[in-house]
Design brief:
By secondary structure, the chain is α/β, with parallel strands linked by helices. The protein has 2 domains: 184 residues, P-loop containing nucleotide triphosphate hydrolases (Rossmann fold), CATH 3.40.50.300; 52 residues. The chain is built from 9 helices and 7 strands. It has a 7-stranded mixed beta sheet with strand order 2-1-4-5-6-3-7, sandwiched between helices. Strand 4, helix 4 and strand 5 form a beta-alpha-beta unit. The longest helix has 20 residues. The radius of gyration is 24 Å and the shape is elongated.
Length: 281
């Protein structure tokens, strides 16, 4: 017994040292403080954000896309089956703005609905995030903006794992909405010197990732009429109408090298600054 008594102080010091180096237990997230959150994968924190101020009816020229996403999020909020959504197409087309505006519109009458945004570089953390959210009573729209897999394998496999859910299946209280400039998420870098068979495998891998999304919503380039409609809508909303509005808006788009919802909003922000008018966002 004396031998064990001699070991007790040593074992106590070892146990105390292990407790000191053990990672602290993360507190349960509090989703009552906000409706929009940003997830920090490194710390596990959910950082609340102010409500998104742009109303849904301000998004013009994308009525078909808006209707499809709104229908999906409304079904999800009611607890009905819904597919994960991939919003793809031209940059600046309003994909992320639409997601947040649709969310706010639905959340107005769905008090248990939350939006969690995760950085595209942290997609390997999606399976752990989904498992954490699975245990919660709320419903979550998880937004991953500008998603693509430049380096491929690890991120793509993590996304597949999160959407499939492993043995337990996908969580019923999580809907993933990803935006991307690419329909198949993966960069097209099929090296010709790898041979036809390898190139075919790459192509199949691209499709297998995007196939996990049951709802595809495309955003084609904005034509001039839709662009001017967006500008006029913003100008009327914020009392920024001016006689040469359309001419100036077209000049702005020419300087930017294209037309999009983002370019229209940037023009309106510049006009508001010129006139000394505050905007909500």
């Amino acid at each position: 017994m004396s031998e064990f008594a001699d070991l007790k102080p040593i074992l106590t010091r070892i146990a105390e040292a292990l407790e000191r180096i053990a990672p602290p237990v993360r507190p349960e997230p509090d989703f009552s403080t906000a409706r929009l959150f940003r997830h920090d994968a490194k710390t596990g924190a959910f950082i609340g954000a102010p409500d998104y101020a742009l109303p849904l009816d301000m998004l013009v020229g994308v009525d078909r896309q808006k209707s499809r996403l709104l229908e999906g999020v409304e079904r999800f909020a009611k607890g009905y089956p819904v597919n994960h959504a991939l919003l793809w197409g031209t940059r600046g087309g309003g994909k992320s703005s639409m997601t947040k505006a649709v969310f706010m519109h639905v959340a107005a009458h769905a008090p248990d609905l939350r939006l969690v945004e995760i950085d595209r570089d942290e997609t390997t953390h999606l399976p752990a995030l989904f498992e954490l959210l699975r245990k919660r009573p709320e419903k979550f729209v998880v937004l991953c903006d500008d998603l693509s897999f430049e380096d491929g394998a690890a991120e793509a496999k993590a996304l597949k794992s999160a959407l499939e859910g492993g043995v337990a299946g996908p969580p019923q209280n999580v809907m993933l909405v990803a935006t991307s400039n690419r329909r198949h998420l993966m960069p097209r870098r099929h090296d010709e010197d790898r041979g036809q068979f390898a190139a075919k495998e790459d192509a199949e891998e691209e499709v297998s990732v995007s196939d996990r999304f049951g709802l595809w919503i495309g955003f084609p380039p904005m034509d001039q009429n839709a662009y001017l409609e967006a500008v006029r809508g913003y100008a009327a909303k914020f009392d920024l109408e001016t006689p040469d509005l359309e001419r100036r808006a077209l000049q702005w788009s020419q300087l930017r090298g294209g037309r999009s919802g983002r370019v229209a909003w940037q023009f309106v922000r510049d006009l508001a600054g010129e006139k000394g008018v505050a905007l909500p966002l």
